[in-house]
Amino acid sequence: MNQTLSKKLVLTLLAWFIALVVFFPIFWMILTSFKTEGEAVATPPSLFFDPTLAGYHEVMARADYVKFALNSVIVSVGSTLLALLVAIPAAYSMAFLPTPRTRGTLLWMLSTKMLPPVGVLMPIYLIFRDLGLLDSLTGLTIVYMLMNLPIVVWMLYTFFKDVPRDILEAGRMDGAGTLQEVLYLLMPLTLPGIASTGLLSVILSWNEAFWSLNLTTSDAAPLTAFIASFSSPEGLFWAKLSAASTMAIAPILILGWMTQKQMVRGLTFGAVK
Amino acid sequence: MRDRASGRTVGGMRTLFLQAPAVSMLLLWMLVPLGMTLWFSFQRYNLLNPMISGFAGLDNYTYLLTDPALWTAMGNTLLLVGWVLAITVVGGTLLAVLFQQEFFGRGIARLLVIAPFFVMPTVSALIWKNMMMHPVNGVLAWLFNLFGFHAVDWFSSLPLTSIVIIVSWEWLPFALLILLTAIQSLDDDQVEAARMDGAGPIAIFWFITLPHLKRAISVVIMIEMIFLLTIFAEIFVTTSGGPGLASTNLAYLIYIRALLDFDVGGASAGGVIAIILANIVAIFLVRTVAKNLET
Amino acid sequence: MRLQHAIIPLAGAMALASVSANAETITVATVNNNDMIIMQGLTDEFEKAHPDIKLDWVVLEENVLRQRLTTDIATDGGQFDVMTIGTYEVPIWAKQGWLTQLDNLPEDYDKADILKPIRDGLSHDGSLYALPFYGESSMMYYRKDLFDKAGIEVPEQPTWDEVHDWASKVNDPDNGVYGICLRGKPGWGENMAFLSTLVNTYGGRWFDEDWHPEIDSPAWHKAINFYVDLMNNYGPPGATSNGFNENQALFSSGKCGMWVDATSAAGRIYNPDESKVADELGFAPAPIAETPKGSHWLWSWALAIPKSSHAKDAAQTFITWATSKDYVKLVGEKKGWTSVPPGTRESTYQNANYQKAAPFADFVLKAIQTADPTDPSAKPVPYTGVQYADIPEFQAIGTQVGQMIAAALAGQRSVDQALSAAQRAADRTMRQAGYY
Question: What is the interface pTM, i.e. ipTM, of the complex?
Answer without folding.
Answer: 0.79
